[in-house]
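Anyone else keep sequences and structure tokens together like this?

Example one:
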Amino acid sequence: MSQALPYSLEQLQNAFGYVESSNRYDAIGPETRRGDNAYGRYQVMDFNVPSWSEQYYGQRLTPQEFLANPQAQDAVFYGRMGEYYSQGQGAPEDRVRNAARCGLRVSLTAQRRQIEAMALSTTRNTATAFCGP
């Protein structure tokens, strides 16, 4: 029997959205050394946008089309994150850490730690913090 997951995808959505873009669907991340950018609320890398939007939203989008489409951004987040989080192995804490490395822009150590801290918080105030049971 699999272990119950203490965090919903909605909670992860709120944590990732806040950390990555202050929940802005129109956010564009800084250009990387390779010339790539991350797009949208969850900062999906531009080279992932066409295939992921087709896979999870049903339409192959350019990064600019993706940026203008909150529904596509949410569909990609739920689809991709759902795979990493709900089908992952190990303790829920490990699944959150692995989800934070799933190909979204979460590559900066400080940002990854902030998401993990939000997801692993021990506070009971679920209205103001991302927390477990």
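And example two:
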Amino acid sequence: MFTGENMVGMNHTQATQGVWSYTQSSVYDFAVANNLDQHNATHLVVHNDSVAWYDAITTASTLRAVLNTHVPLVMARFPLVKSWNVVNEAIYSEDAQPGGWRDCNLYQAFGANWPSEWFKLARTVAPTAELCWTDFTAIERTSSSGFTDTKAALIWALNDGAPINTFGMQMHMANASNNTSPAEMVDRLGQIAALGLDIRITEPDLYDRDSTWPLATRRRDQVAYHEARLGAILAQVPAVKSYNMWTIGDAESWLNFPQFGGNRTDGLSGEFSAIGRDGIVKPEWWAMFERVTRP
């Protein structure tokens, strides 16, 4: 299974309005050439797509016209993608909007429950593809508001006839103190599954910061242990169908970038993923994969 990360984001498809340039199409071509299934290929409709002209649109008629063109063209360009993240990060309770909706141009233009329309459009373009709603505060956070708001939004959309097949959970396990208990994660995942949805873990990662892993020694073991702990949680929920990491290796991880916290201040390189900066799979991670996948 292969995820094209930000392959179909607006900044990689239509950075200039009306000018189409698929700058990361080689990712898709690589997967096709190697017979890799492609699931959850980034996000068709997302807030803050790093494109100023798009983010500035808050008028419903204008934004609807843009997306009615953008979504079908992008999906047609990548016809062998089996699973599409149609909507991403629609809920963000910290924005203090009714229902927990993220205060973005999509919410400002269409109001609450805006995702339903775009799932229906995506289904007309790809009648047999898996369509996924992805979010990131519903399962792992200590606060329950992200979960209750996300579940309510999903129920509304499903009752409205939105053809949602899958719920994608990012699972950025950034701060252990901000994570709820394993039992609560299992319960929340089970409640989502009870809506008739499969679940995909779409962007899991662990921060490796001075405050998270203060000791220089055995940091790989520490991170691998916590990934295995997450795997044990997911194994209790049969509806969880996949676990896609949001990076190839440490060198490529988005967690390296300064805007997301940068690297460690003690001069050590971050340990985020299964593959080190030398391109070699870490033995600690092989052990983790075996603990998770073998009964």
